[in-house]
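Page 47, continued from p. 46.
Same chain as before, 195 aa.
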Amino acid sequence: MTKQLSSTEAQMSLGLGSDIPTERLFFAVMPDPMTAERVAELADGLREEHGLIGQPLAPERLHVTLHHLGDYAGLPPSLLPKVRQAAARVRMPEFEVCFDQVGSFAGGVKNPFVLRSEYGAELLNGLHEELARCLQGVGGKLDPRFTPHMTLLYDRRRLPIQPVQPLRWFVREFVLVRSFLGQGRYQIEGRWQLG
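Result:
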């Protein structure tokens, strides 16, 4: 005799209704395509120079996370409209950033190897704070800690902070990104111009 599955059991057997996160939502600034290509070339060169084995992120995935809004097993339907409305309230002029250092953050087995910014970091901090102010009351807990950085790759080795040839670009917008976990794929859910 075949056992009948409940609706919930049937959905779980198909992977539906699982509480395993499949999507991540975050606000970010992304370099323009020409700068992203230059960053990718830098990552390739540093990888070779330091004997790193991690694969560099694709140019279209390079970004500076402003706020991580959470990981979800399917986004709650009301979340996107709320965060889009909050983002539309941000008022800040465009600004130039300069990433001029690389080094590793501790990450266990996979340490992020990142670009860091000295010049322009205070302006990225300002955008982070303005966005946090606008997101108050939307839900979720925003992390007040913020170290402006752009992850280049993940590697077992950890390298100390060191200078690199400065990479500059103008931050003219910020975006809301939906990342499909484990797929290496992003979907832009909104763009907001600065200025």
